[in-house]
Amino acid sequence: MGKYDFTTRPNRLTQFTSKWQASETNPDLLQMWVADMDFLPIPEIKETIINYGQEHIFGYNYFSPELYQAVIDWEKNEHGYAIEKEDIVFIDGVVPAISVAIQAFTQKGDAVLINSPVYYPFSRTVKLNERQLVENSLKVINGRFEIDFEQLERDIIEHEVKLYLLCSPHNPGGRVWAKGDLEKIAELCQKHGVLLISDEIHQDLALFGNKHHSFNTVRNSNKNFSIILASATKTFNIAGTKNSFAIIQNKSLRQKFQRIQLANNQHEVPTIGMLTTQAAFTYGKPWLEELRRVIEENVTYATDYLTKNTKIKVMKPEGTYLTWLDFSAYGLAQPDLGEKLKREAKVVLNDGSHFGKEGKYFARLNVATPLETVKEAVARIARVFPK
Ligand SMILES: Cc1ncc(COP(=O)(O)O)c(C=O)c1O
Description:
Blueprint: H1 21-25, E1 30-31, H2 43-55, H3 65-79, E2 88-91, H4 94-105, E3 111-116, H5 121-128, E4 132-137, E5 139-141, E6 144-146, H6 149-159, E7 161-167, H7 179-192, E8 195-199, H8 215-218, E9 226-230, E10 244-247, H9 251-263, H10 271-283, H11 285-309, E11 313-315, E12 322-326, H12 334-345, E13 347-348, E14 350-351, E15 362-366, H13 371-384
Parallel strand pairs: 1-13, 3-4, 3-7, 7-8, 8-9
Antiparallel strand pairs: 2-10, 5-6, 9-10, 11-12, 12-15, 14-15
Helix pairs in contact: 2-10, 3-10, 4-5, 4-9, 6-7, 11-13, 12-13
The structure holds pyridoxal-5'-phosphate (PLP).
Pyridoxal-5'-phosphate binds next to helix 4.
């Protein structure tokens, strides 16, 4: 038994929770989709919010030295990444930061590259900003995603790519990129003058002994052409409090980023997000260590159960709490797959095709919920998708 409760699933049906909204009217449905965890926050975050409610006046705030220090210490202690206060730019979300970066560093029509399948706001943001989307397909080799570096270089050259949006660790595949992968990416970016945005929001959730390498720790010169995006929100399940940060060590890039942030009036962050981030990074380590063990157990259970009892091919993640399920053996068209999961299995997963064309016949299963719920979800799936 650990110190924290990872076995009770809180009732989220009264909390305007996106993940569980459809269960408000259809309580039989198990919600196993959006990247949000059904675990209670750490007590210190709760206390911080209670204290905010009781003691504060809710006016404008500045970014406190304690908040900067909490981020600096977390990056150093958890990821061996040494940064200075001036490198950090706070913003309300990683996805908003992606918009700012696209607007700051590219023009309409410029090519922006992603490795698909990938977290769907990447392609959406590129397209809505009227940039040219270049999709470099990931390859499945030995049950995990790999980057085809020769194809990557051809794509960069052919489309004159200006910006590369990397998801590291990778959602939905759970790949924790090896140092060698990041070195090759860096070489190609440098060779072809490509700026790299490294979305490292899942950085704290490397599992099974895998190690996350922040892009700039791989080679010192990477900081000249990179923007690192991260936050405490995914790790500590506080996405609704809205706060994240960009680490931009190159001054001229940082100034360009901040100029667009200001042009969009996106330079302020809710006070509550600042406070929860600070509390999470200051007190959250023991909880996170337990969480990782819980997720490892859940991932292993779901992978083994589905592999044994169904024809689904499970991509077992090296990090994140997301599993990528290949349903192609059942020969169902994509909308029918989602419908069958929802209507017959009564489980809601993310539709794989939203992550890119490579996600056709796939679905993404989130296992960040008590093990009993994971067991129930995979048993329901196996009843409808037998071996
Ligand atoms: C790769 C990735 N980036 C960004 C986000 C969301 O970031 P934010 O809520 O800070 O905008 C998610 C959420 O699941 C994610 O998986």
